[in-house]
Design brief:
Chain A has about 300 residues and is mainly alpha-helical. Chain A has twelve helices and no strands. Chain B is α/β, with parallel strands linked by helices and about 475 residues long. Chain B folds into two domains: about 60-175 and about 345-395, Periplasmic binding protein-like II (D-Maltodextrin-Binding Protein, domain 2); about 180-345 and about 415-460, D-Maltodextrin-Binding Protein, domain 2 (3-Layer(aba) Sandwich). The radius of gyration of chain B is 25 Å and the shape is globular. Classes of the chains: A mainly alpha (about 300), B alpha/beta (about 475). At the A-B interface, helix 1 and helix 2 of A face helix 1, helix 3, helix 4 and helix 19 of B.
Chain lengths: ~300, ~475
């Protein structure tokens, strides 16, 4: 009897601690958020009232939240697209981009590889504060100073509602590219060199080398990058909260789901309503994860 | 080695499996109904000790560490309290993040005894009051003042403090500082350039034009990143044009309160300033950057409150001489006379009702409201306190002096609004819309329509508690 379960018990003894931790600190707060979403809890009360689906009905007519959702959706499309295109371009140049025969990166590629990775090393908050100064709307701004010297601007990179979203996107791409250059470089390193050499002997230029050889062989890595960046786009918070005027402004032009949840919880003290927004965001994220896993089932190329 | 605790492999595994269970009890996000903590019965009361403070019970104090710092508490208030209660141990704390630090303590049922609930990250006083978390400070008002047993605390306070601190008929919050709003300038710059303080809106616009033409500095700016700095003079002007009821209607969420003609006129007036006379890049600058630009004589005027002088103490040139003037007359038929001021008590001190020592907390507030404490405070942080006559005979700085004189000249003609703290959502919408108004993104007409729409939404939302004044 004991012998039969011995193996199971052995496994269980190892799993007990991590599973309990996971249940307590991840699953149970999620479950509690679902409950809080159906109350009118304001954060200080000991006895929240159960109000059913009122919060969910309310959020359907919350214009600012839906504005936030469209910003997340725009980021979901643009952030992976731009980041992957730029990162692929750099990774290609750094690894196989050298003119002429042989497979090697452009001159100084080892140096550039380190430089590209710098933004990844900085904390998000540091990046956000840094870019507040870069985007300053007067002649002490790093971008506006040269533009004003040329007689252009000044541009309100963060204060013009038509421009602020693009500034946020730009900073996110700037910060993400370095990591994906490294990721794609690693992917390229695992492709046998003979493939590139064979293609070069057959007369492929840099252009067709990229589109006909590199990209198809890297497709798996690109998909992984797409999923990572998609999740980044859905749960963006710190950059927007710290960098933009009025935490998601001006005029709510850069706000995202996470900042609206934070605003409702910690500024309006509507923890119940904020939890309802959190539940909606949870379903968006789960939906994206399922969708991307479905779409990315594809034959692997074995070498 | 006999004393080394012997840990068996099994014992370790067992402990590892149990550890998360202990943690589980602490990881609960949902609130637990607390058995009301039995606040110790007050000690015997007397005229000298009206709340029955236990002379040995410790007192926990949390001060918002903002523009005024927290030295005023440790150097002025606490020593004064100690003169009477030398055995009370004061646990002093200061933070910029009031909500993050203290909100969990309210939810957990063990809040501290005195809190200066101020700053951008202050707790929602309405939510706290609604939940019975705040001590009824009515007895404090009726208690004898610290200085004179024949005078009640109520009688030495600016009446606005009582009005502002009252939630649902009960007095809960003591605003300690009298914030006086106006347009701030450098008396030196005005003197040197021969500019005079404008009394009418036409004079104000003419002055802006003169300053602009002089090429010496930009005429006007405001904290563009925080447009609440501009909706303040806009609303004060609306009250001047249409009378105090303009602001009362806005506070009470009356139909059409925002789309009323005086508000639209004021919006139009300020939109013109936004279009013509702003310092370049204003929309992207914050209060520190614009105020520092003024200290560098890059801009002549900006709207602010009487905390400005202390906030800028380190960057102000010695001969700058801050001055403040009230909102100019819009037309000769304004409902309120020249000199009308927006004043508002700030720095909200509260005593949690479920703390360990609410009697000590109230006594601490009574000490703060003494003439000596309030006067020393005014001198230290260059501002005006709410205790009547506390500034008398004190050596005030130019800005505090200018604000005090303006307040005396205004007499009964002071106005205020409360929707900003009552309806945080409306505040955020007004901030967004005012920024747009000043940069030309919305017309004055659209501006008032947009705010009216938001006010109507809030009025219709049953989940938001409504207040009236």
């Amino acid at each position: 009897m004991f012998q039969t379960y011995r193996r199971g018990l052995f496994i269980l003894s190892f799993l007990a601690a991590p599973v309990t931790l996971y249940l307590v600190y991840v699953i149970s707060p999620y479950a509690q958020a679902f409950y809080i979403a159906m109350t009118d809890w304001r954060g200080v009360t000991a006895t929240p009232n159960f109000i059913g689906f009122d919060n969910f009905i309310r959020l359907f007519s919350d214009g600012i939240f839906w504005k936030a959702v469209t910003h997340n959706a725009a980021l979901l499309v643009l952030l992976p697209l731009l980041t992957i295109v730029i990162a692929l371009f750099f990774a290609f140049l750094l690894n196989v981009g050298r003119e002429g025969r042989g497979v090697a990166g452009v001159a100084g590629s080892k140096f550039y590889r380190v430089v590209f990775f710098f933004p990844q090393v900085l904390a998000v908050t540091v990046v956000a504060v840094l870019f507040q100064q870069v985007f300053r709307p007067d002649d002490s701004g790093m971008l506006n100073a040269p533009l004003m010297a040329l007689g252009l601007g000044p541009f309100g990179f963060l204060s013009d509602p038509g421009l602020a979203f693009w500034s946020v996107l730009g900073v996110m791409v700037w910060q993400a590219v370095g990591f994906y250059v490294v990721l794609f470089s690693a992917g390229l390193a695992s492709i046998p060199r003979d493939m590139f050499e064979a293609a070069q002997i057959d007369g492929a230029g840099r252009f067709s080398l990229f589109f006909r050889v590199t990209l198809p062989l890297l497709w798996d890595t690109v998909q992984v990058a797409w999923v990572y960046l998609g999740i980044l786009a859905l749960d963006v918070f710190a950059i927007v909260w710290v960098m933009t005027d009025q935490h998601g402004g001006p005029d709510f032009s850069t706000t995202v789901m996470a900042t609206e949840i934070y605003r409702n919880a910690f500024q309006y003290f509507r923890f119940g309503y904020a939890s309802a927004l959190g539940v909606v965001m949870f379903f968006f994220t789960i939906g994206f994860a399922i969708l991307s896993l479905r779409l990315s089932r594809r034959e692997r190329i074995e070498y | 080695m006999a004393n080394t605790p012997h840990i068996t492999r099994r014992g370790l595994l067992r402990a590892a499996a149990l550890a998360p269970v202990a943690g589980a009890l602490a990881a609960c996000a949902t609130p637990q109904a607390q058995a009301p903590t039995a606040s110790a019965a007050p000690a015997a009361t007397s005229a000298a000790n009206p709340f029955g403070v236990d002379v040995e019970k410790p007192l926990e104090v949390w001060i918002f560490d903002g523009g005024f710092g927290n030295a005023y508490a440790t150097d002025i208030h606490q020593p004064l309290f100690k003169t009477k209660y030398p055995d009370v141990e004061i646990k002093h704390n200061a933070t910029k993040e009031i909500t993050k630090v203290l909100q969990p303590r309210f939810a957990g049922g063990n809040p501290p005894d005195v809190i200066d609930n101020s700053g951008a990250n202050a707790m929602d006083l309405g939510a706290l009051a609604q939940d019975g978390q705040l001590q009824d400070l009515g007895p404090l008002l009726e208690a004898p003042s610290w200085d004179d047993p024949d005078v009640k605390v109520r009688d030495i306070l600016d009446p606005a403090v009582i009005e502002f601190g009252t939630y649902d008929g009960k007095f809960h919050v003591v605003g300690y500082v009298n914030y006086i709003h106006g347009i701030w300038y450098s008396q030196k710059a005005f003197r040197d350039n021969g500019w005079t303080v404008p009394k009418t809106w036409d004079e104000f616009l003419a002055l802006c034009e003169t300053i602009k033409k002089s090429g010496k500095m930009a005429p006007f700016t405001y904290a563009g990143k925080h447009p609440q700095y501009l909706y303040e003079p806009l609303l004060t002007m609306a009250a001047k044009i249409g009378g105090n009821e303009v602001l009362v209607n806005i506070d009470n969420l009356e139909d059409g309160a925002w789309s009323a003609e005086p508000v639209r006129q004021a919006a139009e007036a300020w939109a013109e300033v936004g279009a013509k006379y702003l310092l370049q890049g204003t929309a992207g600058l914050d209060h520190v950057q614009t105020q520092t630009a003024q200290n560098k004589y890059d801009v002549a005027m900006l709207p602010c409150g009487s905390w400005l002088e202390n906030e800028q103490a380190t960057t102000t040139p010695d001969d700058f001489e801050y001055g403040m003037f009230p909102i100019p007359d819009f037309t000769s038929s304004d409902k309120m006379p020249y000199g009308t001021l927006h004043t508002q008590p700030g720095e909200s001190f509260i005593v949690p009702s479920r703390g360990a020592n609410p009697q000590g907390g109230m006594e601490y507030l009574r000490a703060m409201l003494s003439k000596k404490a309030a006067g020393d405070f005014s001198e230290l942080v260059r501002t005006v306190s709410v205790v009547k006559g506390a500034g008398e005979g004190r050596d005030l700085s130019p800005g505090a002096k200018s604000a005090t004189e303006a307040l005396a000249a205004a007499g009964e003609n002071t106005v205020y609004y409360r929707w900003r703290s009552w309806y945080a959502q409306l505040h955020d919408e007004a901030v967004a819309a005012t920024g747009q108004l000043m940069s030309g993104g919305v017309t004055p007409q659209k501006y008032v329509e947009r705010l009216q729409k938001k006010a109507d939404e809030i009025k219709a939302d049953s989940s938001i508690k409504k207040y009236r004044r």
